[in-house]
Amino acid sequence: MTLRTSGVSNCCVLEESVLTSDLAFQMAEAGVCVLLLFCSLFSGLVYYINFFFENGDKIKMKERPNFIIILADDIGWGDLWTNEFDNTTPWLNMLKVEGKRFTDFHSPASTCSPSRAALLTGRHGLRNGVTHNFAKGSIGGLPLNETTFAQLLHDAGYYTAMIGKWHLGHSGPYHPIHRGFEYYLGIPYSNDMGCTDKPGFDLPSCFPCAQSKHSSRKDGGCDTKIALPLFENQSIVEQPLDLWDLTEKYAKAVATQILTARNRRQPFLLYVALAHMHVPLFHNRFLNVTAKEAYSASLRDMDSLVGSIKLATEAFSMKNTLIWFTGDNGPWEQKCEFAGSVGPFLGKWQTSKGGGSAKRTTWEGGHRVPSVVIWPGHISPNTTSNALLSGMDIFSTILSLAGVDPPSDRHYDGIDITHIVLHGSDTGHKSLMHPNSGAAGQFGDLQTVRLGHYKAFYITGGAEACGGGSGKQELHDPPLIFNLNKDEAEGSPLDPASEEYQLVLKEVEREREVLLWDIATDNVSTADYTVSQSAVPCCQPQNPACRCHSPH
Ligand SMILES: *[C@@H]1O[C@H](CO)[C@@H](O)[C@H](O)[C@H]1NC(C)=O
Ligand SMILES: *[C@@H]1O[C@H](CO)[C@@H](O)[C@H](O)[C@H]1NC(C)=O
Ligand SMILES: *[C@@H]1O[C@H](CO)[C@@H](O)[C@H](O)[C@H]1NC(C)=O
Ligand SMILES: *[C@@H]1O[C@H](CO)[C@@H](O)[C@H](O)[C@H]1NC(C)=O
Ligand SMILES: *[C@@H]1O[C@H](CO)[C@@H](O)[C@H](O)[C@H]1NC(C)=O
Ligand SMILES: [Ca+2]
């Protein structure tokens, strides 16, 4: 079978002849953006497709499943599978219909670095040492004696690659290439931590990168001096990167990595940490949208990238692939129309005092995130679980499915939920603690406790709201307790004199003591948060804005 393409129009002919009508129909639904993305994806890969067909269709993969973990940035619970945005996300809607959706799933923290560290290690920040965000100039990162699921799967024979945002220390041995990933393409931290030549939508809006030493300026957190770098392995291949073709680059890299694993006849782990939905927002570069439409255009762009990841597994017959999509924390409310939706989880007790109740807080909007998992033939399609779950469970669950044991000289907070994923059980965590993530208290301290459908706060505090206000930190002894079954908006705490309150309080205290004691007697790590100018990624220090271009 020989396929040839020369540009978009031929590419679309290729699709019609190769794809089943079912898939073509789904793609039509997903709209022009996906088609274009898909075309550009495959126009670069026809060589590989030729190679693949000529080498025989029936390459047998080992029994162990492939894993693709897709982590969105700052996405809101209400951004997916709600009426508000349903027309915007056809591919993620398809994931929901083909897989299992989790409605009570929580990011391990409500800000980037701690959430990602806990996802990769299955341990709270109090154990793995990462309790707040790393900076552009951080010399440290996720402590080196913490073990990521990528290291464990790699050691067990998996091909491992990461595409996207790391934010766990990029300097020296902290770079993803030393933390279990054989290949890396992505940005070392958030996409607002450096300028680009064509800035995306942000508040305040940012200037392009400086062109000369004299034109550099600083404004409202936007730095025009250090451009956002794109790394491939340990090399900066583009600085500043072009936000507007990042989606396409990531889509191509995903397909190439899947093919690499296939050619090596190894099961694979792909960790795809999207730049979407963090500000600055960007979208398909063929669209021209207003600020008001920027969020949904970006959401659609993210959805098309998820679609091309799914299509790549199908196009290369990698049916034995589990894809798990979730988010790292809730919406960044302070960014107003450029922030996502918390859905019904309004955190009313907090907002009535003037603070924001999403990202950086332990209100539901801060850490309850969308989550769905598919694995054709293994996970019942179109099912939902309301079990209390955490992003840390991904660690224990994929290791269990791969038959890999994590190191036994430390304790884990994630649980193996294969019984929920595969067998329809609905029993998750009895209790789950949420770490302080910037809005109140010491970073990382576990002062918010979920117990069944109850939630207790020993400390409250608001993040900055759209328009500026932020609620003051308040200690609560006895804690505020909400019944989420009756009050998902966390508006009115239970009466401390009630029998219900007293029963819940006893159990909350017990669960919290057990966990804190367990952490106190565990092997825990400490992260180095020292900052140095020398650690800032800069391809050409003598150039304004650290500019350089890749050779290709
Ligand atoms: C990235 O590193 C891997 C592993 O060392 C290597 O196989 C691959 O060729 C590298 N890719 C690039 C573009 O440097
Ligand atoms: C985008 O739309 C605006 C308003 O509709 C228009 O003024 C502008 O020229 C358009 N830009 C491009 C590049 O088409
Ligand atoms: C999925 O489940 C929902 C709710 O149970 C149902 O309304 C819908 O028709 C199902 N969709 C498919 C494609 O089976
Ligand atoms: C901590 O590490 C030491 C040395 O590796 C080990 O002997 C001990 O059992 C570990 N503690 C826990 C709680 O796993
Ligand atoms: C990491 O190393 C430090 C210092 O050697 C040690 O105290 C800690 O227990 C180690 N962490 C783990 C998880 O083993
Ligand atoms: Ca984030």
What are the defining features of this structure?
Alkaline_phosphatase_core_sf; alpha/beta; binds 2-acetamido-2-deoxy-beta-D-glucopyranose; binds calcium ion; metal ion binding; 10-stranded mixed beta sheet; 4-stranded antiparallel beta sheet; disordered N terminus; 552 residues; 15 helices
Your description of this structure?
Helix 1 crosses helix 3 (32-43), helix 3 (32-43) crosses helix 10 and helix 9 (246-264) packs parallel to helix 10. Strand 6 and strand 7 (222-223) form a beta hairpin. The radius of gyration is 23 Å and the shape is globular. It is built from 15 helices and 18 strands. Mean pLDDT is 89; it is low at 1-36 and 43-62. The strands form 4 sheets. Strands 9-8-5-4-10-1-11-12-2-13 form a 10-stranded mixed sheet, with helices on both faces. It has a 4-stranded antiparallel sheet with strand order 15-16-17-18, with helices on one face. The protein is α/β, with parallel strands linked by helices and 552 residues long. The longest helix is centred in the middle third of the chain and has 22 residues, at 294-315. It binds 2-acetamido-2-deoxy-beta-D-glucopyranose (5 copies) and calcium ion.
